[in-house]
Amino acid sequence: MIKRNKLIIFILLFSLQFLHAENTDNKNKFLDFFLSASEVFYINLGVTTANNLITGYEWSYFLPEIIKENFTLPPIWDYSSFTRNQLAHPYFGSLYFNAARTSDLNFFKSFLFTAAGSVMYETLIERGNISINDLITTSFAGSLTGEMLFRLGNEVCSKNLPCSFIINPVSFINYLIRKDTISCPYADTLNHSYSWSTLYDFNNKTALTGIALKVKYNDVYNADTIKPLDQFFLRLNVLGGKKGFSYDYRLEGPLFSRHFNNHTAGICAIYEADKKIDSDFSNSSAGLFYSYSKDVNKFALSYNCKLNYTMLGTCLPCKYGHGPSLNTFFELDFKESGKFSADYNLFFLFPYDGRYTAFQKLSVDYEIIFCKYFFINAQTIFVFNENTNCYLTFELGACFD
């Protein structure tokens, strides 16, 4: 009975939003703010209602008396599953973000809505201790993910509305409410590739297979930034095998940059969640970058270096930590035939909860292009932590502009 009543209340509240929308003026900033704030509330109520109906967990009950109880409990570091903490929270953070972004608010104002939505959920909706890491991940990674989905959804909105709903459901809902959509400038270049990927894990002596997606939105790290994250690189793969599953989600791009001759410098942001069979790693960081690129006859040379500060990183034995990180990337592109690249990462994580660790990751790959659109990629990854892990990846796919 309680679950049914909660579902009825949610439907009624959501219906009121459409009644309000009939008189909404897109140029009225107050109504934009009201629309964004109310959608954040509906998202939170919808998430906890769905959790309650599906799982029935005690923490998913939305009751007035839990609010006082939540404020009497000390904040904690949440040790929920890696997938819930590092994928689910960024995704739901992107919904908060786009409740504001698709109401014509800018990146930084939308970031504040994302943080407010996370605080609302942790203090007023979810029952239990406030999770410190969830607040950080939902706000930071949710904002980056939200801007990426906003821009990709904008690219397909006029061409395929159902596909736009899949990419950015909040934008689709606002389209139904407003009868129009908030857009951003289309990308000058949009390269995307799809491939079948196979990873061999030498430590566990097992192979995993699945799909991989890569997106390059505009000329990343080689142009002026007009708006935050108007250039970004996205990598996503999901693999499975007999001994488990693996995925790698990495999103990065400049928040501010200036390009001069062949040089670019500015401020960048990175979020990465990398799960392997027996190791997990995530990184929420921001910092300075320098990039150099140059065309030389039949090949192109590019290099970039990032000096970031990791606000929240997870890596055994340091479950949650912070500290400086260094990333260097080198690529030699032979244009029509293929390209070679090397990527090195060094992290120093000081514990919020756990003990200090240094973490290194080196990947070297070579890609061969054939029949103009198709490619074969071979990549070797070395991970240096307490133990050395090695992975070998093969990809066969197609790349489109």
**Distance separating the two termini:** 53 Å
- How many runs of DSSP E, i.e. beta strands? 12
* Poorly predicted segments: 1-5, 7-26
Strand content: 35-45%
User: From the alpha-carbon coordinates, what is the Rg to the nearest angstrom?
Assistant: 22 Å
User: Major β-sheet, in short?
Assistant: 12 strands, antiparallel, barrel
Decide which structural class fits the backbone. Answer: alpha+beta
What is the strand arrangement across the widest sheet?
1-2-3-4-5-6-7-8-9-10-11-12
Q: Count of helical segments? A: 8
Task: Look at the structure and give the mean pLDDT.
Answer: 84
Helix content, binned percent: 25-40%
One letter per element, helices H and strands E, the order comes to: HHHHHHHHEEEEEEEEEEEE
Shape: globular
Please explain how this structure is put together.
The structure is a single chain. This protein has helices at 2-21, 29-54, 65-72, 82-101, 107-125, 132-157, 161-167, 169-178; strands at 190-201, 206-217, 232-241, 244-260, 263-275, 280-296, 299-315, 318-333, 338-353, 357-370, 374-384, 388-400. The radius of gyration is 22 Å and the shape is globular. A 12-stranded antiparallel β-barrel has the order 1-2-3-4-5-6-7-8-9-10-11-12. The protein is α+β, with helices and mostly antiparallel strands and 401 residues long. The chain contains 8 helices and 12 strands. It is 34% helix and 42% strand. β10 and β11 form a beta hairpin.
Keywords:
401 residues, alpha+beta, 12-stranded antiparallel beta barrel, 8 helices, disordered N terminus
